[in-house]
Amino acid sequence: MSAVQTSQAQLREGSTRRRPLAGLYSGNARAVISRGLMATKSTNALVMLSGFFEPVLFLLSMGIGLGALVGSVAGPDGAPISYAAYIAPALLATSAMNGAVYDSTWNVFFKMNFAKLYQGMLYTSLGPLDVALGEIFLALLRGLLYATGFTAVMGMMGLITTPWALLMIPASVVIAFGFASFGMAITSFMKTFQQMDWINFVMLPMFLFSATFYPLTVYPGPIQWLIQAMPLWHGVELLRGLSAGILSLGMLGHVAYYAVMIVLGLVLTTARLRKLFLK
């Protein structure tokens, strides 16, 4: 090897040591985001809009219709509140989950296995972490839009009684972040549409049994522990406390739960994209 080649090899080696994320992250996640926004504007706008109405319809039918039969229930601090005010934060958490999961599972599954989009992206200067962050940001944007719109609906229905309730919007983004990063990681292992059905199989019972429509105390002890291990329950409890203006140290535990989901999801997604497309 000539002296020039040796010098170039040393420079590349030194550059790699100075950039621990070399090959994983190029700092250009905005390119993935720009492409996603253009695609959404042209093809997926109505699909995104339809996802907003589902929790609103649940709130109208369950909160007003069933609420007329249920009457007042105990809120987070034990004070009586309307049934609509009780389930509204839970439906907001569910909306954040659904929006994030749709974007990070079915949408990602199609791009990964049929459109071969990520394979093409990783042939450029983009790294797997760029792709992961870009796709997750798009899911967060969807969650933010849903959360803002649903909170506005709550305000019009008179269900917001404290300024602390506005914190439900950024809290919903944290919930969406957790589900989006973890959802994309799980999707990277899926190979067929039949396997993707497992996502709905998990989400439906999590929606029904995460203290969404009735308190956790109605369940037997062992079932309560199972429910508290599910991610949506932490989101429901977090938003329900913010909605009533009841701040506690327990909320930090809920946020920490999602922080762990976010970190694990990002690490696993990056590793999987690298293994699948950068062999």
Q: How would you explain this protein's 3D organization?
A:
The protein is mainly α and 279 residues long. It has one domain (26-277). It contains 11 helices and 2 strands; from the N terminus they run ααββααααααααα. Helix 3 runs antiparallel to helix 6 (128-156). Residues 1-20 have low confidence and may be disordered.
Shape: elongated
Distance between the termini: 27 Å
Q: Give the overall pLDDT as a whole number.
A: 83
Residue fraction in strands: under 5%
The total count of strands amounts to: 2
| Order of strands in the sheet with most strands | 1-2
Helix content: over 70%
Major sheet attributes:
2 strands, antiparallel
Name the poorly predicted regions. 1-20
- Structural class per helix/strand content? mainly alpha
Number of helices: 11
Radius of gyration: 22 Å
**What is the helix/strand order?**
HHEEHHHHHHHHH
- In quaternary terms, these chains amount to single chain
Summarize this structure briefly.
This protein is mostly helical and about 280 residues long. The chain has eleven helices and two strands; from the N terminus they run H-H-E-E-H-H-H-H-H-H-H-H-H.
